[in-house]
Amino acid sequence: MVQVFPQTKSAAVNPLKSSQPLGAALAFLGVERAVPLFHGSQGCTSLALVLLVRHFKEAIPLQTTALDAVATILGGAGNLEEAILNLKRRAKPKLIGICTTALVETRGEDFAGDLANIKRDRADELAGTEVVLANTPDFEGAIEEGWAKAVISMVERITTPGEQSRHQKKIAILPGWHLTVADIELLRETVESFGLKPVILPDISGSLDGTVPGDRWVPTTYGGTPVDEIQELGTAAQCIAIGEHMRRPAELLRTRTGVPYALFQSLTGLKRADRFVSFLSEISGAPVPANIRRRRAQLQDALLDGHFHFGGKKIAIAVEPDQLYQFATFFTGMGAEIAAAVTTTGTSKILAEMPAESLQVGDLGDLEELAVGADLLVTHSHGRQAAERLGIPLMRVGFPIYDRLGSQHKLTSLYQGTRDLIFDVSNIFQANQRAPCPGSLDPSRKGELPR
To answer: Name one GO molecular function term (predicted).
Structure first.
């Protein structure tokens, strides 16, 4: 069983994790005509906005209540009301997703009460706009907790409760934050190929997919899950959750509407993709389509071609818990060894199933210390300095990735994504392999050639 070591340092050295409010904002960005609203200072919002813009290379409609020193001391309910009404008048969103920050959470304000008063007093002005609150203090958790809390808040506030008539072909899908835009697009195509109708929440593949929304500027998200479909999640015949952090949203949906759920901790790797595809075939009553069988055969060939490059390689990984499980199981399944594993929080249940001897809750400074002698570093763009100092190649995954283009369009899941990962990693190993010198082959020669 993996031994988890807690964080003991009083300061982070080259931070690994992103905050809860950022994760919640990213989830709200997966809803059509939505605007995430940070309840806190302008600085809290600016940092998240910069990271999101640099990662996706898109305009991000992230707003703030812009608390100043006086509002921070006396209470920010006035700023919250003013921000909500301004957004309603100017952007006319279908959803305003409020993400609290450490500034207001530390003060201990009654956010739910303040929001209830605003909705009651301004009901006419806010008609047609859902306002959802997610409590996401920066001082605890990380991006995956924030994402899950935002989904929970949307199900609690928007989804119609109670047992409803089910559409047998309708499937609710709750993807984890670590699935890329390309992963979610492939997920939808795969589900639809079985004759099923997926409703994905959140769906960043419709809002952060790099398309141009037309000849005018749009002040909200221009794609994603429609609010009407969130309301009708209870009419789905089945819910599929991807990632351990999506267990609570799936359980909440089941409690409120009776929709059963199945949890898939990862969709990367042959066995895990097989389980998902078999499940779709079972609930749809349809055979596996020929195009999916072909993708599986391509993955089998990639496994044969690529496993020579993975055997005995030492991998150092630093990402969020569910993404750590996704990549750790992928590498060990290919014959590599997890030499160092670092993550952002020690509360996730998935950590107990990690295929590693030990796991450190920490930062990229911890990764740099543990990764000495590794063959590959796996983390986001902030790990590039550690990779340079150690002389180890870096594979960029997670968030943020700002020094490479197209990270959101990289596949990491199902047959196609696993195949692409095999090729990407194998090519990194081949590009960084060193030819042996005569001395390393025969130490007695000490590197000298005979005369």
So the answer is: nitrogenase activity
Amino acid of residue 417: G
Whether the pTM exceeds 0.90: the reply is yes
Q: Assess whether pLDDT exceeds 90 at residue 336.
A: yes
Statement: residue 56 has pLDDT above 90: yes
The predicted model gives 288-301 an average pLDDT of: 97
Residues 6+ apart with CB under 8 A from 195: 169, 284, 286
Cα–chain-centroid distance for residue 54? 16
Nearest-10 crossing angle of helices 270-284, 321-333: 110
Phi, psi of 309 (to 5 degrees): -85, -15
- Given a contact cutoff of 8 angstroms between Cβ atoms, the answer to whether 333 and 349 are in contact is no
Residue among 352, 353, 360 at smallest CA distance from 319 = 360
* Residues 110-136, mean pLDDT to the nearest whole number: 94
- Which domains, from first to last, does the chain contain? 20-140 (3.40.50.1980), 167-289 (3.40.50.1980), 293-431 (3.40.50.1980)
Cα gap 154→130, rounded to integer Å: 9
Question: Order of strands across the sheet with 95-100?
Answer: 63-64, 34-39, 95-100, 130-134
- Check pLDDT > 90 for residue 44: no
Distance CA 104, CA 134 (A): 13
